[in-house]
Amino acid sequence: MGDDSEWLKLPVDQKCEHKLWKARLSGYEEALKIFQKIKDEKSPEWSKYLGLIKKFVTDSNAVVQLKGLEAALVYVENAHVAGKTTGEVVSGVVSKVFNQPKAKAKELGIEICLMYIEIEKGESVQEELLKGLDNKNPKIIVACTETLRKALSEFGSKIILLKPIIKVLPKLFESRDKAVRDEAKLIAVEIYRWIRDALRHPLQNINSVQLKELEEEWVKLPTGAPKPSRFLRSQQELEAKLEQQQSAGDAEGGGDDGDEAPQIDAYELLEAVEILSKLPKDFYDKIEAKKWQERKEALEAVEVLVKKPKLEAGDYADLVKALKKVVGKDTNVMLVALAAKCLTGLAVGLRKKFGQYAGHVVPTILEKFKEKKPQVVQALQEAIDAIFLTTTLQNISEDVLAVMDNKNPTIKQQTSLFIARSFRHCTASTLPKSLLKPFCAALLKHINDSAPEVRDAAFEALGTALKVVGEKAVNPFLADVDKLKLDKIKECSEKVELVHGKKAGSAAEKKDCKPAPGRAAPSGAAGDKDTKDVSVPKPGPLKKAPTTKAGGPPKKGKATAPGGSANAGTKTKKGLETKEVVEPELSIEVCEEKASAVLPPTCIQLLDSSNWKERLACMEEFQKAVELMERTEMPCQALVRMLAKKPGWKETNFQVMQMKLHIVALIAQKGNFSKTCAQVVLDGLVDKIGDVKCGNNAKEAMTAIAEACMLPWTAEQVMSMAFSQKNPKNQSETLNWLSNAIKEFGFSGLNVKAFISNVKTALAATNPAVRTSAITLLGVMYLYVGPSLRMFFEDEKPALLSQIDAEFEKMQGQSPPTPTRGISKHSTSGTDEGEEGDEPDDGGNDVVDLLPRIEISDKITSELVSKIGDKNWKIRKEGLDEVAGIINEAKFIQPNIGELPTALKGRLNDSNKILVQQTLSILQQLAVAMGPNIKQHVKNLGIPIITVLGDSKNNVRAAALATVNAWAEQTGMKEWLEGEDLSEELKKENPFLRQELLGWLAEKLPTLRSTPTDLILCVPHLYSCLEDRNGDVRKKAQDALPFFMMHLGYEKMAKATGKLKPTSKDQVLSMLEKAKANMPSKPAAPAKTMSKPMGGSAPTKFQSTPAPVEDSVSSTIETKPDLKKAKAPGVSSKAKSVQGKKVPSKTTLKEDDDKSGPIFIIVPNGKEQRMRDEKGLKVLKWNFTTPRDEYIEQLKTQMSSWDIHIFMKVFPKEKLKQCKSEFPIRTLKTLLHTLCKLKGPKILDHLTMIDNKNESELEAHLCRMMKHSMDQTGSKSDKETEKGASRIDEKSSKAKVNDFLAEIFKKIGSKENTKEGLAELYEYKKKYSDADIEPFLKNSSQFFQSYVERGLRVIEMEREGKGRIPSSTGISPQMEVTCVPTPTSTVSSIGNTNGEEVGPSVYLERLKILRQRCGLDNTKQDDRPPLTSLLSKPAIPPVASSTDMLHSKLSQLRESREQHQHSDLDSNQSHSAGTMTSSSSTTNIDDLKKRLERIKSSRK
Predict the structure, then answer these.
(1) Is pTM, for the whole model, over 0.90?
(2) How many angstroms separate the CA atoms of 966 and 1413, rounded?
């Protein structure tokens, strides 16, 4: 009894640990009651039991344990700290609960495990349950399996990881315990419900009876896609929605759900197998053996290895090379088929990792189709289809197109069939028009082939393309195809079944077109043992495989041939041109008949009159008739043919010709003017463009035609016509017209290659005017194309090249003008379907691709490759030198470079670092020479360059980084981030590699608009880097963290921490929270309303980043009504503040802090986006209580600029000059000068509140002020100082600061020029306060140093006495009045003795004085609250900032402007004011001097 009474007095937590079972039972019961009463999940009461919950579930007494389990379940459900107990509690449940005979205990144990999953601890629970499957006790195994099954059933396959469960399933099926086998069967059925046929392959080797039983159960399952019935705490809202749907009746059933693809690919469930080390040691010898039997043995050994469904990544280059050689050169067709099967196995087992070898083997396989034996052809088909799924059609397009010209009909047939099968895996977005065009052109040749099998294959390929992208996209390429063949193409299109289903508008897709993921065979194929190993989990022949590889980014900007689409990216243009091209050419009789119906009879008769006056009268009537015609009734072709009728364009009277040309322009503007019409008149227009009197009319007509028929086509016609004649004046003026037209229409769709050919002709002309016009045109093209334009002209003479460079230099920093023509007819709002992911189409995007590329594969001989791999480093260097010479000579090369990639890859890990650097240099050359086609070598050459970033030598790492950047500039980032290659590099524990790679990713990721699919693979290694021992690695990882989160989102990043250790997880989550606050938003796509008409925008390749978000919404903001127009100018609509912002070339977080843009920003996504931007300091947040100084400064400067703009709009400079007083214009100049002095060039970034800067005088004034500021800051009375200051400006502008300072000190050291030298040094220090003169003083004597310092102080005192008043806050406004007569030049150069900015009180009071002189009132300014009070800043520094002065001064000017609007300025006001100010000057000047001396002495 004593014992009983003793434990009854104990607190609950101690009872729970008591040795007596009764005490523990009582404790658990009381704890349960306490847990049920606590309403706050964060109550400190929970923490008391944190270490006891494991004992609750592992109690040795079965009765007590039941109560403990009940209490533990309530604890886990309600306590916020319960997650910390997951591992120990679930482990206890597995070992001490699941072995209990009582079913109640087992049920509670399972519920506890499920509750831990609900509170987001699923991975830890699953880990402990999987450990339980290794237990020897069958009861524990059964309970763990049942728990996993229930968890999967309730939470779904997104929460429960299936791969580790599937891995142990075969072992469970082999158990001797029937209960275990039965439970394994149940969980296998549950898994099948979620992933369907993807489960077949992992279970293919279990007992056939068990497999049959499973098949029977699987058939019974409903076809609808399963849905989770229980959700994580973070998903409770989804649960509520599901309940609402169920209560509404769930009328949908499972109709649509059955069509959904399974979420899991069988391939992902498999373990990768390493096979390279298992190759026979003599494989490479045997494969070269002369006896075919030995070669066969080698291939059979490989075939066995590659049947593994998933292969581990490695260096397969040598193996692929050997197999390729057999396919291409072996005379034994049986071995060819066997080698093709081996390639199929490699491609299927490696998937994307095989993509780097695809370009090497595709041409060989296609050319081997000359073999006609069915078994060989079938093996080759399977190989090339499997290889296609590892790469993209874009990457292998050039290889395939090259084979299309082969003379062998079998090769042509099989190539067309391969293209057809490839097209089935494409969509409208992965088969862009830029890729479709060359394929259609090649296939159109084949439909006219003499061999019927070639024609049929081509028809099938074209029909497949028609099915994929639709008639609208394909029809322009089929314009010349006769109706019979067109019907055949359409017939083939109807029979095609696409992997991704048919496009919108077509019949419903058949249900059996949807196979399971992975290379799964159709239903019922599981019994085929021969195909299971290869076909079930991996992508095989295209006709069966459901997976696809997205096409590479489409090439942009290539102009099509006349008659096609001028711009592959603009569907509206294409449609319009198609209509115009088909207009037939009318006979002259029909034209006369149509013209006579709309023209006066006399007009037709007098067209060819011999009297010029009659012809002139005829033209006048013609013009009137055209002006009165409606668009629909105007026969454009008939009218222009009448104008071309004799004398036509040979008209000798200039007045008649001027009117004739004007009429052509009218017809083009008012009618439906086609290219057929244009062909009639363009030749005549070009012939007259150089005429002094008619040239302008000819240009007007050509511009109108360009608007009607699109500039790209018109320009191409005009240029070819101009350069087919010998008139230099016509050529010169044609070039001038084109320069202007490009600015008006933009650059979109222009055929750069054709223009460059003509420009080269013009540059070689003897006439200087033609050369000048050509250089001017190049300057305009440079605005759109960028620096790569120069490479077209590198072979020109040095003198001419220097002129071109000078023209390009003029254009640097300028942005292309907004197109003003060609918008209304040929652009539409929005974008066409299927193109939302594309970049804007710009003519200059792929300008480098227009160059003729040279095939160098024949120069990459086996001898050269052997040299590069030689043991002697000198010979290796010779080989590399040869390669560099080949690339230099070719300049631009085709992507096929033979065995060079393998050879160069070996040199990247050369022991000789000099050769490594030379190899990197060659790889940089290769990127430039090959252009965007280098992307097909990213996997086999680009990734090894990344590896070199881990080199221990700084210079090698720097060279590797430069090479990677050179490649990325050509390829974009997509190819680099695809697959596991980059994550494998980050996984390597090399601190140099990690910090360089993370730094590179931090630079590149912010520029991506779309989320890289495989970026998530890098996240575990990123977390590892966050805890790396190396501090630099940790810092780089932290820097990269926000950019990873920008693409993946916080939720994915947080979920990825589940596999970390608890301590690491908490630390990483803390970093994620910090990164979340600074996470930047993704770069916005260019505004769609701007991208189409702005064909002249700078090409994407030459822009570092897309336009900021605020720019993309500027058009929306502009449409808002300005409700405050009637108010004072200072409070005009904020909406206009976004306009006029210059797009920065780079955007980084640091620059966002330093260079603040417009502060009135509207973000489309609302609150969430604004909060991220505010935390990242990208925008100003207006709900702050204590504003930062830079916010106030930024706001004031913008408002100041805007106020000055309004003032100058009311009082232009010319009007101010007419005023009798100089006061307003002097004040204006002072303001502008001060703004330039305060902000420097950054002042031009604060003009965004101005609606249209082209109509404002402010920007021009500021630019002039910036240019001449040095000339206006010195005192006009001190000529020597002014002379010295101008020399300073000149010298510093030439970057000869040291020479100049040396000259100054030389003067100071001489007796004759000491004062001049000191004056120049003083001016220099005042202009460049951060200049370091210590190097010039440290070697001199102490006496000389003191002499210089003393001299500078004397000059400072003299300057103060001559032209300025100290800015002490103690000086009253009345005392400062005495300096009113100071000249303007002195006022503008006010600065204190240390070269710092003067306090604003000086300017404020001087402005008051000037206002008094003009008879204006200062009381309004006193009543107006300062801007800082509007911002609710609690305290203002005693000396205000420099922009306070500007704001005060502008307030005065605004009020002054209002008075000047009612009355003119007169000199009497200024005279009276001047008299007032002179009264107190005598009494105050002495006092000022005394105060000044006291201030100086106190400073000393």
Answers:
(1) no
(2) 65
